[in-house]
C-alpha cells in the first residue's frame, strides 16, 4: 500500500526485489552444481584408485573381473595389471570378464583389442567373457572386429574354454567313481 499512488515506483521496487530473489536462487543453484561436480570428481578419483584384482584361479590361469565404467585411464591401468600378472605367474590363459561393465564404446573396445594383442605377445591367450547382447550389438555397429579374440557369453563358459586349452578335463564324480570300481 506504500506505493498505491505511484504504480511506476511500485513496479521498479518489485522488479528490484525479484532480481535479488533470482540472484539468491542463482547462487544457490550454482553452489549446488559446484558441490555436485566436486562429488562426481571425488567419485571418479576413488574409482580410479580402486584396485581391480587379477585372480589366479589355478596354475597358468588368471581372471580379471572388470566392474563399473571403463574409461581410458582405467582401461590402461587394467592392462598394466594384467600384463604384470601374466609375467609374474607365467599364465597361459587370462579371462577378462566384462559382465559388470555397463557400456563399451569404440575407445574401450580398441583398448581391449590392444590388451589382447599385448597378452598374446607375452604368450598368453585372452578370453573375453560377459558380453551382453547390447554390448555385442554396439561393438558390431561401431565396426569392432573381434574375429581373432576368443569370446564367450559368460564366465562359466570362459572357464570351460580355458580349462580345455590348458588340457584339463572335468570328470563328473559319478563317472570317476564308476571308473574306480571297474579298476578293482
At a glance:
This protein is α/β, with parallel strands linked by helices. The chain has helices at residues 7-49, 72-89, 106-121, 133-141, 155-165, 173-183; strands spanning 55-58, 61-67, 93-100, 125-129, 150-152.
Tell me what the structure shows.
With 184 residues, the chain is α/β, with parallel strands linked by helices. It has 2 domains: 1-49; 55-165, STAS domain (Transcription Regulator spoIIAA). It is 59% helix and 15% strand. The protein has helices at residues 7-49, 72-89, 106-121, 133-141, 155-165, 173-183, and strands at residues 55-58, 61-67, 93-100, 125-129, 150-152. The protein has a 5-stranded mixed sheet, with helices on both faces. α2 (72-89) runs parallel beside α3. The mean pLDDT is 85.
Helix content: 55-70%
Predict the CATH topology of the largest domain.
Transcription Regulator spoIIAA
CATH architecture of the largest domain: 2-Layer Sandwich
Poorly predicted parts: none
Number of strands: 5
| Tally of alpha and pi helices | 6
CATH superfamily of the largest domain: STAS domain
Radius of gyration from CA coordinates: 29 Å
Helix/strand class? alpha/beta
Instruction: Domain count, please report it.
Output: 2
- Mind telling me the CATH class of the largest domain? Alpha Beta
Q: Approximately what portion of the residues adopt beta-strand conformation? A: 5-15%
Cα(first) to Cα(last) distance is 111 Å
**Globular, elongated, flat, extended or rod-shaped: what is the shape?**
elongated
Average residue-wise pLDDT? 85
